[in-house]
Write a structure and sequence with these properties.
conserved putative lor/sdh protein from methanococcus maripaludis s2 fold, Elongation Factor Tu (Ef-tu), domain 3, 6-stranded antiparallel β-barrel
């Protein structure tokens, strides 16, 4: 029995040894290298660049007050539409004390002058009715009364404007009513009821009551690198995609290329703008981030080959073409590339097999 066990052990060790040797021998044998076979085809090559930017209205109008005061009422909210001359807000005027005092003094003085002119007119009219003075003398007195009346009226209106922001004779044109200067969508109302606002003057831009824009007239605004700006021109078609809107793309046309570069991170960039055509039923919000795909160059009906098959040696380009004895090196002349496929100008004919990437076999 012991002898049988020893023989069994020897056989097991021998089997393990032989199996290991066979496995290592198989692993050490060189494997056949296999490659993809690619065939040149006729097609179109287009090289594009992608410019990042944003969608915004062509014009945004800041509505500002004509007088200083406090916001008494707001009639509109951001996101609502507004028509030209429609009232957005109403102000309560806080007059300057010096101006108010001067206006009140002017009213009192004009009132005194008016009373005196009225007295002179009544006296001279009695004499004129008795034919004791000439018509010419009476006309001068009547004219003085009329002038005094106009001066009093102007003084009262001036006081009302300084005190209330509007005169009783021109309420429809009140400067306390803030009206939109254009029709469009209200993008922002940065003030609240009770806020103090000031009008635009030499020393201040004034307080913005609302920002209004026509959202039917949109543009793409972005920056293109100086290495590519020389290959774009006005009118070039642009494809716009917006990250916030899935599976939606807009057609656009390049309408502006800045003549001056701006430096950003050591790179010179040129501003570009494109007119955006928004499809019906699509809502665009001002400031959406967007990408503009611009086609820089296009070659149609040319021989193309996947660029992965191209080999480089200095300034030469070559491929390996399948022949009778296997793959043979052949120089080729390339043209436009879109990053995936490349144009073959010389060196290949349709139907030839070209070596591609090596096929990785699983272990």
């Amino acid at each position: 029995m012991k002898k049988f066990g020893k023989i069994l052990m020897i056989l097991l060790v021998a089997a393990v040894f032989v199996g290991t040797f066979a496995y290592l021998f198989q692993r050490s044998r060189p494997k056949e290298v296999r490659y993809e076979e690619l065939t040149p085809e006729m097609g179109t090559i287009a090289k594009s660049t992608v410019v990042t930017g944003k969608i915004q209205p062509r014009d945004e109008v800041n509505v500002k007050p004509q007088i200083s005061g406090i916001v008494a009422e707001l009639y509109k909210e951001a996101g609502q539409t507004v028509q030209q001359n429609e009232v957005i807000a109403k102000l309560k005027v806080i007059p300057e004390m010096s101006q108010l005092s001067s206006a009140q003094s002017r009213v009192r003085l004009s009132e005194v002058n008016l009373k005196q002119a009225q007295t002179n007119h009544d006296r001279e009219k009695a004499l004129f009715d008795q034919q004791l003075i000439s018509a010419e003398a009476f006309d001068k007195v009547a004219q003085a009364l009329q002038q005094a009346q106009e001066e009093y009226k102007a003084a009262v209106e001036s006081l009302e404007i300084i005190r209330d922001g509007v005169s009783s004779s021109n309420k429809s044109g009140s400067s306390t009513l803030i009206r939109s200067s254009v029709s469009g969508l209200i993008l922002d109302i940065p003030v609240k009821v009770g806020n103090t606002v000031i009008n635009s003057n030499t020393f201040n831009d004034g307080t913005t009551i609302a920002t209004v824009a026509d959202m039917d007239d949109l543009i793409f605004d972005g920056n293109i690198d100086e290495t590519e700006v020389g290959r774009v021109h006005l009118g070039l078609p642009v494809r716009i995609t917006v990250g916030a809107l899935q599976d939606v793309a807009f057609d656009a046309a390049l309408e502006y290329i800045s003549p001056k570069a701006t430096e950003s991170g050591g790179t010179n960039l040129f501003e570009i703008k494109a007119t955006v055509k928004v499809p019906e039923g699509v809502t665009i919000r001002s400031g959406y981030s967007a990408n503009a795909e611009i086609e820089l160059q296009r070659e149609e009906n040319v021989m193309t080959l996947p660029e992965s098959a191209i080999q480089f040696e200095g300034e030469k380009t070559y491929v390996y073409v399948l022949g009778d004895g296997g793959y043979e090196r052949r120089d080729v002349v390339t043209g436009l590339s879109d990053g995936v496929n490349i144009e073959i100008k010389e060196g290949l004919v349709l139907g030839e097999k070209v070596r591609g990437n090596q096929i990785l076999e699983s272990k």
